[in-house]
Amino acid sequence: MKHCHDEHCHCHDEEPMEFLPKVTPCDLKTEYKTNPLGMDEPSPRFSYQLFGTPAQTARQIQVFADGAKKPLWDTGWVEDGISQQIAYAGDALKPFTRYTWRVRVKDANGEVSDWSAEEAFFETGFLGTPWKESGWIMYRGGQRIGMFPQPFFKNFELPKGKKLSRARLYATALGCYEAEVNGTVVSWPMAPGWTQYASRVQYQAYDVTDLLKPGKNELWMTLAGGWYDGRIAAHWNGGICKFGKHEMLRAELRLDFQDGTTQTIGTNDSFQVIGLGGAIRMSDIYDGELYQAWRTKECALGMTAPLKAVRPEEQPEVEITWTSGAEVKRLQTLSPVKITRRCTGTYVLDFGQNFAGREILHLKNTTRGATITVKHGEMLNPDGSLYVANLRSAIATTTYVCDDAKEATYEPTFTFYGFRYLEISGWFGRMTKNDVEAVVLSSDLKRTGLFTCDNQLVNQLFDNVGWGLRSNLLDVPTDCPQRDERFGWTGDTQVICNAATYCLNAPDFYTKWIIDFNLDQVPTGEYPHVSPMPSPGYVNEYAPAWTDAAIVVPWQLYRKYGDKRLLEKYFDQMDKMIQNTIQKTNGTYIVEPPCYGDWLNINAETSKPYMGTAYLAGSTALLARIARVIGREKDAKRLTTQVKKLTAAFQAKFLDPKKGLKEKTQCAYLLALQFDLLPKEWVKKTVDALVKDIKVTRKLHLSTGFVGTPLLLPVLTRFGHSDLAYELLGQTTYPGWLYPVTQGATTMWERWNSYTHETGFGDVEMNSFNHYAYGAVAEWFFESVAGIQPIDEDPKAAAFKRFRLAPVIGKTMDNAFAAFCSPYGVISSTWERVTEEKKSHIVWNFAVPDNTTAEITLPKGTLKEFTGAAEFQHDDQGTLIALPGEYTLLFEE
Q: How far apart are alpha carbons 690 and 127 in whole angstroms?
């Protein structure tokens, strides 16, 4: 497979479509996925896009079971324009069954499209039925594997005289596994992923039909500790793993034959395990991997007789669920841009980009017993050696012990690293760029957002946001991919989610995480600050911006993708958190949260009671909006009353009627403005105070941390200071978004000064060079600079069926382009400042995809020219409406 080296490339998009008829349904998906296997949603949701029609007026969907000619479900003609979140409502689906579906539509002229041409199917897995043909198996004596992977295997034969119709391997583990069928790896990297193992574990489904052969076959599965039992699981638990007592493996290989019979090979004590282990002698997410190449399967089996796997009498009661999240994939390969020889056999490789992934070694003429060591780092020390101090206790090292071989290729299996640089020692001969590659590892999320402008530093900043997302959206949303942490910090997740879902198509990714976050909630209502939580049941007190991810992240999925199901499913749990937090104020409505605050602020501490009360008021107001969206009006009224009480308490405690807010930090001003906590007479005065602090006190710099920074540019823009927002974005000195770019950053950094040319490295205890929280600024690029905005107020507008275009033109930027591939199609907005004869004009081009409409807010200036697919219309409220097509407008500034 050829891999793309260009991050701007849509290398994971579908192939370009050839000629399409006038009205064509395309891009058919089930539960956000293209043709999923092992899909166990009993009422799956369908989606599609339209090409070639301004508006759909009716649709018809048909679902067929396994080649049947008569549809199992036929909607008939449904008169609406919706093409997203269409829930199946036919007869109950059956397990282990393939279903195909198709759609056709009518347009405003009554023209009926052909049935969708592309094959669309979904295949159910267990669908809630028990795994009765298998059991959980483990290593001998129930010993923990932890960092020492163990191979399990089963030899079997296909029945003579029978022709195989299809074969599916369903696999999972309490730990991580790699599955091979007849020597071919079929599993995803780091499968089955990280969940709240105390409650559930995912399984994956693989089509292995073409890998099986008549006669003897072999299923080989290697089990490692991974997130379940590696160092990461014990890091904050005093060295004790609390998910469970033993790593275990479970799988069923289901063989369907053409004569209608089925055979299932399941994990049990007929599986064998190599007692002395295989070639992978140690593998850990924090510490890396030790691989002894001479320990081939044949060698390992020859050293000692295999042991029987143990199937414990007491089987784990953990629920096995389908993989609703995104697949982890090798997305891209990178070649080194520079190789520096340090001494004989030791080289430092620079890949030109910080990322999360692994190396691939291509070795020649190796000698048995020789050892090659690969260390990983994000930066170099001044003397050119690898900088690893910020990894803290993570060893992050690959050790490869060679066999006698003319050629060998190796990639670590049960670990991943955050790095830009490698230091390789023990290398044979002279190293070339063809000898080592790096593979980018991440959840497979299609790129949906592009942004460029005339400021190359801002363009690099946007690229850094993208690389930060790729690095930290690896099955779960993490804070960083390199040091002894890599947890699903909820505050980081909450602040970046809006930007992330512009840049990447991530509904399934975040849906999977939301499930585990809610499983982590304790009965009294508290959510943890990291999820999945390595200490199940641990009670974390309310932390403003962290705990609120339980409400904000599902809301963002509703805004972007129209997903009401998550809001409905988890509303009561969100409400329980709100009520629990309010109750703990003992009637004062002033929150006393114990931790974090405006994390990593610049000498501008905002008190925790201030932040807690403000954020709780904001989240309560948001939950009231959610209640209205899902039709729970009584709850909406109750929550709205509580918002008023929280606001009144906030004003009584933190607002001096004569002097304004008692806390004078940028973060304090931003929270009060963002959550509408001020009386009308104090709004402008507070905005003025914020502007003064930025421009005068801080000399055009920010002072905010993780909580306040994402609010800066949106709040300034909302309250009429977009020019200051542009100036603040463009600040190149410390602290600010562009300062790390001037210092060589290729990802978002944890601190604005994690490294400087003048003073070197920052505090090693908290100094990640791949920490995406400050990347939340990208939401402003889409929603303000380009003006692409979802309409939150109207459920009928969900998923960008109807959206707003309202670009805010900046004086310090002369052109900007943004494109967002929404669920309904590509929305683009680009503007350019053109100066002729001392007169300045703005040319604004935008495109509205088929089957949508856009509300238009014209930029400031006098409209001089208009070219478009149709004249603007006005709705009942007088709002300008643009129909599908391309438009060009010229304004005189």
A: 54
Q: What letter does residue 310 receive in the DSSP assignment?
A: B
| Residue 430 DSSP one-character state | -
886 is known as an active-site residue: no
Position of tokens 């977009």? 722
Chain centroid offset of residue 244 CA = 27
**Which residues neighbour 647 within 8 Å (Cβ) at sequence distance 6 or greater?**
617, 676, 677
Q: How far is CA 693 from the centre of its chain?
A: 35
Which residue type does 375 have?
A: K
Task: Choose, from 750, 779, 783, 855, the residue flagged as catalytic.
Answer: 750
Strand intervals (E) in 556-679: 655-656, 660-661
**In 3-state terms, what secondary structure has residue 529?**
coil
Residue among 563, 489, 448 nearest 827 (CA): 448
Q: If phi over 0 gives left and psi between -120 and 50 gives alpha, with beta otherwise, what is residue 182?
A: left
- DSSP character for 137? B
Q: List Cα–Cα distances, 151 to 221, 273, 410, in angstroms.
A: 6, 6, 18
Q: How far is Cα 646 from Cα 635, in angstroms, rounded to an integer?
A: 16
Q: Where are the beta strands (DSSP E) in 136-175?
A: 150-157, 164-174
Q: Does the global pTM surpass 0.90? A: yes
Cis amide bond preceding 735, omega within 30:
yes
For 157, the token pair is 């034969």
User: 106 to each of 61, 115, 136, 505, how far by Cα in Å?
Assistant: 12, 11, 51, 28
Q: For 213-315, list the strands marked E by DSSP.
A: 216-224, 248-257, 262-266, 272-273, 280-284, 288-292, 307-308
Which is it for strands 319-322 and 200-207: parallel, antiparallel or unpaired? parallel
722-729 helix and 709-718 helix, angle to the nearest 10 degrees: 150
Give me the catalytic one of 31, 437, 485, 526.
485
Q: At what angle do helices 709-718 and 680-692 cross, to 10 degrees?
A: 120
Q: Specify the 3-state DSSP secondary structure of 34.
A: coil
b/e sequence 563-582, b meaning 16+ C-beta within 10 Å: bbbbbeebbebbbbbbebbb
Half-sphere exposure of 342 (CA within 13 A, CB side): 16
> Token pair for residue 631?
């039709």
Residue numbers in the chain where pLDDT is lower than 50: 1-21
Three-class secondary structure assignment of 72-121: CEECCCECCCCCCCEECCCCCCCCCCEEEEEEEEEECCCCECCCCCCCCE
**Strand order across the 815-822 sheet:** 449-453, 815-822, 825-836, 839-848, 885-892, 862-868
Residue 783 annotated to the active site = no
Four-point Cα dihedral 797, 802, 804, 805, nearest 10:
160
Q: Note the pLDDT tens digit of each residue in 508-560.
A: 999 999 999 999 999 999 999 999 999 988 888 999 999 999 999 999 999 99
Please write the tens of the pLDDT for every residue from 265-313: 999 999 999 878 899 999 999 999 999 999 988 877 777 778 899 998 8
Residue with tokens 């992330």: 500
**853-856 vs 802-805, strand pairing mode:** parallel
Task: Give the tokens for residue 219.
Answer: 């299923």
Find the farthest-apart pair of alpha carbons in the chain and give their distance in angstroms, rounded: 91
- Angle CA 233–238–244, to nearest 5: 40
